[in-house]
Specification:
By secondary structure, the protein is mainly alpha-helical. It folds into three domains: 1-35, no CATH class; 39-212, Cytochrome Bc1 Complex, Chain D, domain 2, CATH 1.10.760; 218-365, Cytochrome c-like domain (Cytochrome Bc1 Complex, Chain D, domain 2, Orthogonal Bundle), CATH 1.10.760.10. The protein contains 15 helices and six strands. It has a two-stranded antiparallel sheet. The protein has a two-stranded antiparallel ribbon with strand order 3-4. A two-stranded antiparallel sheet has the order 5-6. Strand 1 (109-110) and strand 2 (113-114) form a beta hairpin. Helix 9 crosses helix 14. It is globular, with a radius of gyration of 23 Å. The protein binds heme C (HEC) (2 copies). The site of one heme C (HEC) has 25 residues, from helix 10 and helix 13.
Length: 395
């Protein structure tokens, strides 16, 4: 609010200073003149992060756009106005302290998946909302949306309309948001006029989620020469990045690929009996037999915070995941050729090696990120909770 008032003051000053011909009457009397001057900014450059982003020219990041997007991200009134139907915001499922995944204690978590507004469950377990601005390949577990034909703006709209998530209608969402007094001025600051549209809602939310950059883990500090890894963590790092070790790096990156995913879509050797019967796998997108049971490789950043794991949320702990890769890898005809140890049933780690690998994975936790106040709920807690019961608005 303080910022907005300052912006108004600035608008008046610039009219006084810049163009006396406009007259001074607009300042000090009646409704102050507002100028559309979004403060554009670029994502902070990180030396070892990719330079390519999916930020479109027509939706550059601005302080005002991000601020609006943050309110919308946390606003349960996106789903409804009154108590009975006002239960969900993006943040009900995407929780900051879980790297914008659900967390195991989330009341909406049902058998590894999430329960949307109509009580239906989502097709898959959750994905975290981190470093999305750098994803220039596939979105979603099955990659059904592919950059650049689809971008985050499209994904936000799809989420708002999806029957298993918000099950919303574009027109009613727009009407609801436009009727909340705080919003039209925020749209004016972000987009130049008070008009609320579905496109603008999606653009603002996309701006906010593009600012969710996670790159301050202990491993990042190690890469920057600011921290040392312990002997155990270092040994885990070596295991992670060697073929004769745990052999994770081909798919999940490492020092040369700091997003900790290649975004490839493939089969990593889960039990086909249970992993190949999902109607929304990669096969549902391409129709190719070789894609049955294939999923996008998830990032391992903040993996400590994002249980449950895998597309169906089958594992609750990293120990279970490590055991899976160590001794429970299943052969299937189209398993990724990068699963080099499939004939041995996995990479066969000793208990000691498992502990080191886990210690390394824990160095990917970014505590600064999950506590960053810029990403938290901007509403005063007792006005609009991020989930739960909404306060009916007055009109
Ligand atoms: C009911 C829980 C739920 C709600 C509410 C929800 N999401 Fe999601 N979100 C998910 C699930 C589950 C996935 C994984 C979908 C998949 O690929 O099958 C996901 C995936 C995503 C992705 C893709 C991430 C990637 O790496 O490809 C984005 C972006 C996203 N959500 C943004 C949002 C936004 C923005 C909102 C609010 C408008 C929102 N979500 C609300 C459950 C939810
Ligand atoms: C051949 C490529 C490949 C290799 C090698 C590989 N993974 Fe994966 N990983 C994947 C894919 C694909 C998924 C998603 C599979 C699914 O959900 O069905 C995945 C999922 C995961 C997940 C769950 C992430 C989440 O958010 O749910 C973790 C943790 C993980 N891998 C860790 C590792 C570790 C540790 C290693 C080395 C021991 C490794 N992976 C080796 C491809 C690979």
């Amino acid at each position: 609010m303080e910022k907005r008032r300052n912006l108004w003051r600035y608008a008046c000053l610039s009219i006084v200073g810049g163009s006396l011909a406009l007259g001074l009457s607009s300042c000090g009397q009646g409704k102050p003149e507002r100028v559309f001057e979004p403060s554009y900014f670029d994502l902070e450059e990180r030396e070892y992060f990719p330079t390519r982003t999916n930020i479109p020219d027509n939706n550059r990041l601005s302080t005002q756009g991000v601020a609006l997007g943050r309110y919308l991200f946390y606003d349960i009134r996106l789903t409804g106005r009154y108590q009975a139907d006002s239960m969900l915001s993006c943040a009900s499922c995407h929780v900051q302290e879980h790297s914008f995944e659900s967390g195991l204690d989330n009341p909406l978590l049902v058998d590894g998946k999430m329960q949307g507004i109509r009580g239906m469950t989502t097709a898959h377990a959750m994905l975290p909302l981190i470093n999305l601005a750098y994803n220039t390949r596939y979105f979603g577990w099955n990659g059904s949306r592919e950059y650049p034909s689809a971008n985050l703006e499209d994904l936000v709209k799809a989420t708002l309309l999806d029957s298993t998530e918000f099950a919303g209608h574009a027109d009613s969402i727009v009407k609801r948001i436009a009727a909340i007094p705080m919003y039209p001025p925020l749209f004016e600051d972000a987009f130049g006029s008070e008009t609320v549209t579905f496109d603008r809602i999606a653009s603002a939310i996309a701006q906010f989620i593009r600012t969710l950059v996670s790159g301050d883990s202990k491993f990042d500090r190690y890469l920057r020469g600011e921290a040392q890894l312990t002997a155990e963590e270092l040994r885990g790092y070596v295991l992670f990045t060697t073929e004769e070790g745990a052999d994770c790096f081909h798919c999940h990156g490492g020092s040369g690929n700091v997003l900790f995913t290649t975004y490839d879509i493939l089969i990593n050797g889960l039990d086909p009996e249970t992993a190949f019967n999902d109607p929304y796998d990669r096969f549902s997108v391409t129709g190719a037999t070789s894609d049955r049971g294939a999923y996008r490789v998830p990032s391992l950043r903040n993996i400590e915070y994002t249980a449950p794991y895998m597309h169906d949320g089958r594992f609750s702990t990293l120990d279970e995941v490590i055991d899976q890769y160590s001794e429970n890898v299943y052969y299937s005809p189209y398993i990724s050729p990068l699963m080099h140890h499939v004939n041995d049933g996995g990479v066969q780690l000793t208990p000691d090696e498992k502990a080191c690998l886990k210690a390394f994975l824990l160095t990917l936790s970014d505590e600064e990120f999950i506590r960053n106040p810029n990403f938290s709920n901007p509403f005063v807690q007792d006005t609009i909770p991020a989930s739960g019961t909404a306060v009916p608005e007055q009109e």
